[in-house]
């Protein structure tokens, strides 16, 4: 047996992609592709119109360098490095310390959502569509005035006195003002429904159960005080409903953090760009302004606290330094009095000056160390650098001390005492000056943060991008449609060319084009199993003899004339692998063109289960083959003549028997065929599908010419081969095949195709 042709329609025999055929498939299914793409585009347009617009507010903030800080201790803390970089400031802004304060001020943990018309409610409200008049009229009218509706609602147990035809939906201009909703922990993140009763009263519902009513402007309590609610104003008609929820504070902070984006412009510029997105443009701008104000205020407070701490430290040092200065002066005066005012030499004075400078630097470093120790550990690089500088100064001090030790005793004592006095005096004066400067700094602290651009919101929404959504939806629709078409073509194993049948060593006697006129004649019937089937109704060869399908059957008639020259009888069996492939159409129209040529032709409907050959001639199936084989009716009485065609006769299927296969396998069927052989030039039998039942195999034993019908793009090569082998197993040789319902398509135009031409 020859190898069956490949079932993949998109590849050539060498395995390469057949681009010509692929293009043809897309052209054949262009309307499917256009329809699906258009559907996706329409969905994209609808989504773009109905999606909630997202607005963006932005602000610009500058973090100034620490050199602009007015804290006087910066002179002695220069080793501390710069202020925290922008990344640190960004994290401060996004912290709960800042955002949590904004949540508390603006009640962002309180969610009030109106119940809107599904899908389109937001669109209608955004475009200012107010409550329709007829809806308002229905709300104020009692349903009881309509007896039929009232009766139905009463039967369903609905209280018509409270029935509202708009189901509590909110329209444009309808709002409520909720000032506060304190709840206990167990009711956090729980949904409540507020239903408006009138302009001053409302009902609160939880878990679909009313939990109480409240008044506007009154601090109400529900559920034993676990839920509080203060409604300041109601601007909505009775029946309007709103969803309320008190979020956990941390959840509200995280929601705000997710919508806030902070980036630095450039590198180490200290200029931060703030962006906040939200569905409410006014709320987005207000929220961003509030966060900026809170951040600036905390920055000023932080700077002021730093100045306050430094001032406290200086205040604690001034008395001690003053006491040391007094003690040093007294000691020097006493010594001079005792030694009769000993003066210092020039060399000793120079040493004294150097020692005073060193002591001054060491004292400044000591102040700096006291400041830095509150922020860093000794292992920190900044702290380590300070300690290293302090060590170097101590070494220089030790060198000077060695020089002092080489001086005369009196000079040494005077030098040391004079040093103590001058050092303490310099330190004391410096501290007094710094105290005054720090007092000024504390009073005039402005922080190192400046708002360059106040928060403003873009007038147009930044999302969703309508053009982008429509473009993406259209592209997605195109890809889905093209992919679906190509995927279907890749797995479509239906026969498309006669070559595929000839690969099975099965001659193709005819390729019958799909007839548009016959499709108009066909009608649908509903089977007992609920399936809809298409049946042949009307004789195309009689109604339109010039149809291309009829011309193809005339060619089949000629081919059969020569093919049956050596046949033992004049019987033809028309069968196929599956139902719905057009066997009956081929049978009746082949018989018609043979009758039009002057032959006496008899058609036998061999499908006693679901045969509908009688529908072609507009009669009923009663009285036919099953009645003949059951010996209920004689053959002559069951043969009917087609209207307007004297040479064409037919036998309907008759009443559906319980055992059609057993009736066919009887001597009565053989006698029937022998009888009709004597009275007709050609007998054509339409049988059930061979892969469904065995009737065709039984009939084929009595017929010398068997034709197998395959439908274009429906029956696969494997189905045809299996049908032929099943017939051959039963001893029935298939004479040839008929490829039915051929369509002229771009995918097959370059191939074998079919050659039928209109000739008028």
Percent of residues in helices comes to 40-55%
The geometry reads as elongated
- Give me the secondary-structure category: alpha/beta
Strand order of the largest sheet: 13-22-21-16-20-17-19-18
Strand content range:
15-25%
Roughly how many Å is the radius of gyration?
51 Å
Instruction: Spell out the CATH superfamily of the largest domain.
Output: P-loop containing nucleotide triphosphate hydrolases
Examine the coordinates and then state which fold CATH places here, giving the name of the CATH topology of the largest domain.
Answer: Rossmann fold
- Overall CATH class of the largest domain: Alpha Beta
Number of domains: 4
Distance between the termini: 44 Å
Supply the CATH architecture of the largest domain: 3-Layer(aba) Sandwich
Question: What features would you describe in this structure?
Answer:
- The chain has 25 helices and 22 strands.
- By secondary structure, it is α/β, with parallel strands linked by helices.
- The protein has four domains: 21-51 and 464-491; 110-246, no CATH class; 307-452, no CATH class; 498-529 and 538-751, Rossmann fold, CATH 3.40.50.
- Strands 13-22-21-16-20-17-19-18 form an eight-stranded mixed beta sheet, with helices on both faces. The chain has a five-stranded antiparallel beta sheet with strand order 2-9-4-5-6, with no helix packed on it. Strands 10-11-1-12 form a four-stranded antiparallel beta sheet.
């Amino acid at each position: 047996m020859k190898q069956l042709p490949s079932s993949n329609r998109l590849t050539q025999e060498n395995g390469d992609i057949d681009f010509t055929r692929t293009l043809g498939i897309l052209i054949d299914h262009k309307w499917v592709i256009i329809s699906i793409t258009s559907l996706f585009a329409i969905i994209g347009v609808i989504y773009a119109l109905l999606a909630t617009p997202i607005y963006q507010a932005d602000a610009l903030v500058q973090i100034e360098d620490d050199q602009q800080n007015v804290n006087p201790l910066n002179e002695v803390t220069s080793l501390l490095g710069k202020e925290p970089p922008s990344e640190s400031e960004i994290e401060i802004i996004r912290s709960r310390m800042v955002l949590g304060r904004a949540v508390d001020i603006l009640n962002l943990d309180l969610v009030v959502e109106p119940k809107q018309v599904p899908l389109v409610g937001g669109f209608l409200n955004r475009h200012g569509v107010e409550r329709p008049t007829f809806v308002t009229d229905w709300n104020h009218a009692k349903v009881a005035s309509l007896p039929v509706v009232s009766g139905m609602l009463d039967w369903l147990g609905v209280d018509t006195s409270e029935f509202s035809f708009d189901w509590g939906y909110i329209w444009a201009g309808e709002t409520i003002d909720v000032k506060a909703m304190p709840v206990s922990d167990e009711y956090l993140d729980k949904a409540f429904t507020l239903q408006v009763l009138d302009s001053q009263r409302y009902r609160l519902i939880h878990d679909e159960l009313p939990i109480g009513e409240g008044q506007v402007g009154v601090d109400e309590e529900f559920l034993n005080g676990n839920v509080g609610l203060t409604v300041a104003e109601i601007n909505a008609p009775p029946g309007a409903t709103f969803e309320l929820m008190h979020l956990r504070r941390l959840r509200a902070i995280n929601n705000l953090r997710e919508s806030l984006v902070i980036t630095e412009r450039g590198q180490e510029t200290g200029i931060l760009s703030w962006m906040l997105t939200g569905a409410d443009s006014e709320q987005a701008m207000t929220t961003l302004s509030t966060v900026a104000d809170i951040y600036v205020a905390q920055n000023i407070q932080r700077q002021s606290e730093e100045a306050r701490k430094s001032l406290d430290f200086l205040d604690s040092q001034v008395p001690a330094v003053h006491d040391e200065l007094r003690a040093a002066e007294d000691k020097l005066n006493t010594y001079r009095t005792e030694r009769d005012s000993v003066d210092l030499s020039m060399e000793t004075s120079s040493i004294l000056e150097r020692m005073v400078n060193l002591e001054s630097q060491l004292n400044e470093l000591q102040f700096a160390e006291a400041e830095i120790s509150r922020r860093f550990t000794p292992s920190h690089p900044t702290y380590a650098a300070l300690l290293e500088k302090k060590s170097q100064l101590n070494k220089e001090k030790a060198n000077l001390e060695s020089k002092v030790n080489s001086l005369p005793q009196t000079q040494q004592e005077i030098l040391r005492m004079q040093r103590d006095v001058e050092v303490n005096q310099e330190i004391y004066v410096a501290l007094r000056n710094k105290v005054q400067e720090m007092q000024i700094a504390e009073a005039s602290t402005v922080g190192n943060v400046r708002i360059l651009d106040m928060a403003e919101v873009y007038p147009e929404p930044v999302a969703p991008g309508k053009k982008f959504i429509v473009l993406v939806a259209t592209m997605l629709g195109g890809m889905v449609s093209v992919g679906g078409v190509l995927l279907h073509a890749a797995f479509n194993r239906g026969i498309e060319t006669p070559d595929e049948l000839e690969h099975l060593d099965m001659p193709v006697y005819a390729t019958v084009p799909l007839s548009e006129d016959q499709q108009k004649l066909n009608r649908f019937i509903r089977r007992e199993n609920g399936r809809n089937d298409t049946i042949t109704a009307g004789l195309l060869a009689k109604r339109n003899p010039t149809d291309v399908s009829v011309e193809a059957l005339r060619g089949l008639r000629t081919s059969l004339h020569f093919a049956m020259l050596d046949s033992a009888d004049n019987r033809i069996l028309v069968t196929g692998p599956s139902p719905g492939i057009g066997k009956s159409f081929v049978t009746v129209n082949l018989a018609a063109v043979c009758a039009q040529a002057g032959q006496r032709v008899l058609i036998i409907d061999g499908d006693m289960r679901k045969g509908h050959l009688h529908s072609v001639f507009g009669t009923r199936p009663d009285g036919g083959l099953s009645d003949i084989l059951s010996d209920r009716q004689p053959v002559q009485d069951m043969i009917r003549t087609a209207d307007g065609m004297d040479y064409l006769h037919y036998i309907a299927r008759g009443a559906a028997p319980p055992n059609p296969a057993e009736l066919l396998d009887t001597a009565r069927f053989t006698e029937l065929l022998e009888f009709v052989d004597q009275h007709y030039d050609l007998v054509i039998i339409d049988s059930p599908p061979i892969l469904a039942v065995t009737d065709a195999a039984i009939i084929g034993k009595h017929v010398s010419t068997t034709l197998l019908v395959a439908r274009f793009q429906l029956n696969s090569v494997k189905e045809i081969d299996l049908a032929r082998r099943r017939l051959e197993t039963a001893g029935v040789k298939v004479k040839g095949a008929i490829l039915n319902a051929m369509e002229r398509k771009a995918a097959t135009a370059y191939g074998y195709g079919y050659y039928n031409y209109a000739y008028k």
